[in-house]
Amino acid sequence: MSVRELVVLGTASQVPTRHRNHNGYLLRWDGQGLLFDPGEGTQRQMLRAGVAAHDINRICITHFHGDHSLGLAGVIQRINLDRVPHPVTAHYPASGERFFERLRYATAYRETVRIAQRPVSADGELDRAKGYALQARKLSHPVESYGYRLTEPDGRRMLPEKLAAHGIAGPDVGRLQRTGELDGVTLDEVSEARPGQSFAFVMDTRLCDGVHALAAGVDMLVIESTFLDEDVQLAEEHGHLTAGQAARVAADAGVRHLVLTHFSQRYADPADFERQARAAGFGGELTIATDLLRVPLPKRR
C-alpha cells in the first residue's frame, strides 16, 4: 500500500526553542523518501519520529543558512553508518557547493553509500523518478535559495461498472491498460482521467514569481510563515513571508492543503498564524506545523 505523507521533524526559524527543533521535513512518496532542509538536530528528530536513514532517497536543500542545513553532516554520516543499500541524490544551490562539501566531510568517517551531488543552478526540471518529476524554482532571499515541487504524471482511473459492462476482468484489465484497446474496447471507454498529485516546498523567501509558480494548483504546499502580518516590514527586510502572505499565495493558487511552518521564536501562540491565514482568505485544509507531526497528502481528486 502506497503512503504519501509529510513527516515534520522541526519547525523553528533561525534558532531552536524548547518546543521547536531546527527545520527538517521528510516527504514519504510511495516507497521513496525526500528529506528537505535538515537543520541541526535532524538526526535525533528522525529517531523520535520513527524515520530511518534507509527511508531517505533524496535530500533537497533550499539554501545554506544553518537552520536549513547544519544537520546535513550528521544525516550523511548516518546514511553511511547504516549502509543504506541504495544511492542517495542531493540537490542544493550550486552557489553553495563549498558549504555542501564542508558539511559532507565535516569529520572523518567511512563512506559506504554513493551520494550523487546534483546542484541546482537554474529553474526547471531536476530529475524524473518513479512516480514523480522534481522541479526547482528560484526564490528571493539574501542568499541563493530554491524551492522544490513534485508532480505526479496524470493517469487513468479504471471504472469497474464500465469494465463489467464490457465483460473485461482479471488479466484483461492490465492488457487494456498497456495496449489502450482490447477486442474493440478502448481505454477511454472504461476509464476516466486521474490528475496526478503534487507537492511544493517553499522556504525562506519574499514574495516572488517562484513562490507562485511552485504553489500553482498543488495538493499540498509546505511554506514558511516566519512572521505575523504586523511584522511585514521585518519579513521584507530579511527575505521572509508572513502568515497572511503565505495564505494569500495558497488561496490564489488553489492549494488544497496548506502547511505553515518556520516560525520565529518571537511568537508563542501558533493560533495567531491560523487566525491570520484564515483572515487572508484561505479556505482549504490548513495545518500549523508542530514538531513530529505527520500530515497525509489530500485524497486524490
Brief overview:
By secondary structure, this protein is of the alpha/beta class.
Amount of helix: 25-40%
Please report the distance between the alpha carbons of the first and last residues: 18 Å
Rg, alpha carbons: 21 Å
- Per DSSP, the total helix count is 10
Total beta strand runs: 18
Mind explaining what this structure looks like?
This protein is of the alpha/beta class and 301 residues long. It has 10 helices and 18 strands. It has helices at residues 42-49, 66-69, 72-81, 97-104, 160-165, 171-179, 209-215, 232-238, 243-253, 271-279; strands spanning 4-10, 24-29, 32-36, 58-60, 88-91, 115-117, 124-129, 132-138, 146-151, 155-158, 181-182, 185-186, 191-194, 198-202, 220-224, 257-261, 285-288, 294-296. The protein has a 7-stranded mixed β-sheet with strand order 6-5-4-3-2-1-18. It has a 7-stranded mixed β-sheet with strand order 7-8-9-14-15-16-17. It has a two-stranded antiparallel sheet with strand order 10-13. Strand 3 (32-36), helix 1 and strand 4 form a beta-alpha-beta unit. Helix 3 crosses helix 4 and helix 9 crosses helix 10 (271-279). The longest helix has 11 residues, at 243-253. The chain is globular, with a radius of gyration of 21 Å. The mean pLDDT is 96.
